[in-house]
Amino acid sequence: MSINEEFIKHIALLAESVSEFHTRFEIEPNAGSMENMKFRNQLLTEEVGEVAKALNHRDYEQAVRESVDVAYVALGTLLSHAPEAFVGIAEVLAKNAAKTCETHMLDWGGKVVRRSESQQVRDLTQEAMNYDREVSNGGNP
After folding, report:
1. What pTM was computed for the model?
2. Residue 121 pLDDT
3. CATH topology assigned to domain 3-98
4. Domain ranges in the chain?
5. Distance between CA atoms of residues 38 and 35, nearest Å
6. What distances in angstroms separate CA 28 from CA 4, 23, 103, 106, one per listed residue?
């Protein structure tokens, strides 16, 4: 099983656990409730703070575990705001599926960002220069 397949399996298990947790504690969806969203934001902020604390202590393993807590609370937030959250999920899925290597790129920090028109031109120019160099070297890069 690939790492991506393992990841999908574990995220599905995490989502299932969130659902079971909400059922066990009778946490009802609060769709449309700004108060509940504010409360959920406080929970998320607390969990993100735990990640920052672990990073400040240079504790990678703890930072990873705390990141899972962030995901758990984020999934719980989405469940708490179903079915409205389903619309947001669909929008994010569609938006990210539309990103391609032609429209976006990794910036120096590793974040996926929109390619500017000038970046696209620079990439095409670099591609052309690489091709010219390869042709002049008898097909060797």
Report:
1. 0.79
2. 54
3. putative ntp pyrophosphohydrolase like fold (1.10.3420)
4. 3-98, 99-141
5. 5
6. 32, 8, 40, 40
